[in-house]
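Study both lines:
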Amino acid sequence: MRFYLNKEFFTDREFLVAENASMKAVAFRYSTGVEAIRVENKKGYFIILPFKGQQIWRAHFCGKDLWMKTMMDEPQKTSVYLETYGAFLLHCGLDAIGSPVCYEDKHSQHGTIPNVCYQSAYIDVGEDYIAVGGRYDYDKTFVMNYAFSPECRLYENDSVLKIHVEIENKRKSPLEYAYLCHINFRPIDGSTLVYSADYDPDHIKVIKGDGDSEELKAFKDKLSENPELHHKVGAEGEIYDPEICFTVTYKGDETGRAYTLQTNGEGACYVSHPVEALPVGVRWISRTGDEDSMGMILPATSEAMGYSYSKRTGQMRTLGSYEKLSFDIEAGYLEKDEADAVLDKIAKIKE
């Protein structure tokens, strides 16, 4: 059963808006005025902002807070990217991804969609799941007209979010687009990054910046020579202040899906993404003391270096006349047996 949400439903007091036999969805409004839905099952919950970018603000499963450490406890009523930053998952694009790194770039950081106001949002309640989704329509006359429609679904016995994304070109002319799924886990010191890619400089590129400190430059040089140095989370000598970005070339399994884990042997933070639709694996790690984020994989269509770079390197993608595209991403937490099964899968892909 699907029903559509109205902002007038939301108040400062929580109320039960939907349920099935084993799950429930609770609606509330943050003190900042931002509407939210908390979807709960017996393993945990996620909080989504149905009208604000369809951001997944928080995710908590198997007793673990999965979202990045941030100074921002509540989402803010602004569209300025870094003035309301701290979500577990953000949709980025479609005009560009990354920062506007040169004078030719006119887009905002990570594009139009991270904080847009959705024209429609809904809750879908099934026998064994609850999903929250929405649709954002963008129309700039003579330029582009598209619909962006994400959905986040949680099943009753699961600790992994199923994220479905659909992009529709509503014009006769082609739609040029970029997309990045910005997934911000919390680092777990002592854990290890394991993923379906070759661990060498040909497949793991460290992004260097003109404004890097000397210490950061030196650490990036070490990582460039031996990328495996960053696999041990919290290792002595690591420097991720303010951040380090990598570009990882992933391999998929027989279904075309790639896998990434942050594992400590007891369980694992987990992402799976489709390599064909999202061929670029962006990795973003930031450990400033105030912010602490393990963006172990941000599945993307291109490197997150702004529109001009993506255009110049042929990484911008195109949807044809009235064409639609859809893909699915999984993100969440795996308990030990599930994590071990994915480790085996990664080992087979890498053989």
